[in-house]
Design brief:
By secondary structure, this protein is of the alpha/beta class. It has 8 helices and 11 strands. Strands 1, 2, 3, 4, 5, 6, 7, 8, 9, 10 and 11 form an 11-stranded mixed β-sheet that branches. The two termini are about 30 Å apart.
Amino acid sequence: MSRVSRPGAVVAARPAAARPAVREEHLEVDGAKLWVRTVGDPASGRAPFLVMAGGPGMPSGYVGSAEQLASPDQAVIRFDQRGTGRSQVDAVLPSKLTLDAQVADMEAVRERSGAAKLNLVGHSWGGLLCMAYAARHPDRVASLSLVGSVPPTFDGWRQAQDAMGRHMRQLTAQGVRAPGPGAPFGELLPFYFAKPAFKAPPELRDAGVDGEIFSASLSAVRGFDLREALGRLTAPVLVARGQRDPFGPAATRLTVDAFPNAEVRELAVPNAGHFWQENPRPFFDAVRQNAR
């Protein structure tokens, strides 16, 4: 069960024609209190977008540019996952951060929106959460767009992490400065980009990772394999990645193969690494085309 702990406040004062209304609120769910931001009216027509950030342990601010997907007949929703940013969790324990708990949070957000279905958009770790939701609630998915997603198996994720490690060692050997232990996430960003010298926009440059949430979440999801359940999904699927995503193409292939009964479109965006901010237009154009 969930409940709204305080009325949603409309924080955008501009006319609706110029900019969609924005509602920010806290939603109480089992074991957590979620900060939720909605741009536009989820009841305006088409199924809203629910945009899930990566991490684990990253607030949703760095995916804020996805709010450009909002239109007069389609809203965009994002929220800080339990224990991150402006959201709270009862205790930072693996038992509080399972995939089941994360899916339940997403379902509570859907119920609050009043929408029957969602156009899911997940980046990195957020892609895993979107796949977990689609595996549990395939009938509530209008479309699924995965951007640089964690693959649908834990072993595949470990292989992607190994690819990232090799990439970091190669760049370090070429002179890219390796951050020290405990360095802020911003110092790691050059290793995620197609061009290490890319100047990150503020939404990404200011991003951070909660180390406790990161570690507890990894323990919580160890051993996952969503492939069998994802075989039931028939909604359209977009699997997008930057051509120079350091996590490598193998994760993309594993993800594509997990949807035997869905129409799947693959997209490799040039001049982009792990984050869409390097070349956002192709990503957002493809997400719009995939939405229903």
